[in-house]
Design a protein that fits this description.
Oligomer: single chain
Strand order of the largest sheet: 9-8-5-2-1-11-10
Helix content: 25-40%
Distance between the termini: 25 Å
Largest sheet: 7 strands, parallel
CATH class of the largest domain: Alpha Beta
CATH superfamily of the largest domain: Glycosidases
Number of helices: 14
Radius of gyration: 26 Å
Amino acid sequence: MEYMIGCNFWDSKSGTDMWKYWDEDSVRADIEAISACGVRYLRVFPNWRDFQPLTFLEGWRGKLTEVRMTDDRPFENEFGIDPVMIERFEKFCDIAAENNIKLIVAVITGWMSGRLFLPPALQGRNPITDPMVLKWEILFARGFVRFLRHRKEIVYWDLGNECNCLGATPDSTSAWLWTSTIRNAILSEDNTRKIMSGMHGLSVDPDVYPFTIQDQGSLTDVLTPHPYPSPTVGGDVDKANNLRTTLIPTAQVVYYEGVGGKPAMIQESGTFNDMVCSKDISAQFMRVNLLSGWAHGSIGYLWWCAMEHLHLKNPPYSWSMIERELGILNLDRSPKPVALEMKRMTELFDRLDLYELPRRDTNAVCVTTKGQSNYWHIAATSYVLSKQAGLDMEFRHYTQKLPDAKIYIVPSITSWAPLGKDMLDQLIERAEQGASVLFTTDTGMITTFESLTGLRSFGMEKENQQHIMKLDGVELPFSYEQKYLLTSIGAEVLSKDDDGTVIFSRNKVGKGYIYMLNFPLEKIIWGKARVFSDKTKPYYKIYEKLTEKVELDRICVSANPDIGVTQHRHEDGSYTVVAINYTDKALDGELDFFGRKYSVIYGDEHNIGACDAAIFKIEA
């Protein structure tokens, strides 16, 4: 399927109340304006409160006697769905079709922008676990899909908007059951379309958070991170157009896809308001993430949101300062810079026929392990460092099977049981076959330590002093979490502390190598501002060291750590190469094609614009 470029949509006049105060002329004007800006896909939301307006009518001593609609009208269908709302949604589909826009429909929209929108009769109940609510959710999902499944404009069903925010979820079993219940309700009425998760902020560990990437991957067809420059994903540490923040959405897509085993997409992304960044920087953020998502397997990029809502006084807009000025258009429907840039990107994809891109070649795998306090931060840091080191990484959970790769990274291991025997055996086997495997330590322990690492421990101790690691002429400040007092009994020492403790080592195992880093690199640098852009402290050099003993089969590389390169092999043996500048300054790509003949199909290899890309074709 083509790469989906578009927005999430609430109308400009009423926002989340658009169905309640339906204005066809206003909606039509909105859709025509965003269509003119290159929007081809919209994610839309039937407000649950309005589409299934249930009221419980009570009789003697408060006994539930009947369920009707909020104005005491009897139901006109078995699902409790207001037919007037279905008519309005049908009209919305007509308007979308007139403007060549396709739709992703978030079925259970009971949570939006910080507010719950439950039918009146169900307020105060838990939508995840309450049997009464579950009954009506099933009826709503079945009825809505039955009434709208004939609409060709709808290309995906979505479980709903961030439904993991609907209510407290006691455990992962409850999360799994809710997801399975709604998915099955949708499929019972339409098994011709795929289902998106619609959820964000998922975990890899059910003990940390009950909604997991693995469960969503097993139950839905597309995983849907919602990355913003926000503290929830670590996007508030550096500027919105600086490397780290510009790589986080891509990292989340790759993380969700690898651990969940299903395609993923950047389903929501934006920059909140003008205090986060200027409108021009917002356009840069959109452009780099649209291009990077495309190059790294995201099936689409949707901005939040299409329309501006600064004038609205109804909750949640009266509550929140970050839900009011998110549109690609101004209040008068004139385009903001982000809209102009989205139009330019759509025109570029049209002109060069870029929508279908083969999967990128990967050469590294990051293994997420057990017991970490924040799995995502460790994984994201590892991803950024790997990109700077010229690697193209994917992810796996420690309970899963490893794909073939030349490099495996097990970052910031912690606890006495960071990974099971099966994963350790897989990693050893890959090293014996010729791969490079890196462990970086927090407080974690692995078995057969001496034979794997060629190191011997003379104890461990806690300390919080600052140290300097010297590696190939650079000095990298660090601190131990649990200092293991290591000495070599056969390993090649790549760096050591002032007291002789081995910091970084390489040990021959079969045809490959086990690398050991004696501090939690990924953990200690995650929260540091500008750490990835500080040229005097290139921490990525540690990862780059892993490439010395393996052949990575790269057809193009960049010597610039701020440029990420992906290569995509076509069936005829030709390649598309994408070089992305993740910073706010134009850069020389410093690209090496190893003598291959290539043509530039977009951009300038010696002057890749800020938060932009250059695209090349290499013939077979």
